[in-house]
Amino acid sequence: MKNKIExxxxxxxxxxxxxxxxxxVSRQTIGSLENGRxxxxxxxxxxxxxxxxxxxxxxxxxxxxxK
Length: 67
Fold this sequence. Notes:
Largest sheet: 2 strands, antiparallel
Oligomer: single chain
Strand order of the largest sheet: 1-2
Distance between the termini: 16 Å
Number of helices: 5
Order of helices and strands: EHHHHHE
Radius of gyration: 11 Å
Helix content: 55-70%
Shape: globular
Structural class: mainly alpha
């Protein structure tokens, strides 16, 4: 799954650390999300969506795995 978290975060002018505090996660979690190494729980995905006031689908791009 790809996401636009880094792009959206920068548009809002906040650091990874600030975003982490707002979401009650570590800065490492934000870094891993932005680099695509970690897929968030559904709860975290909705927290991010609510924080930025945009839909989950606008943040996360689901790509089906090729077989």
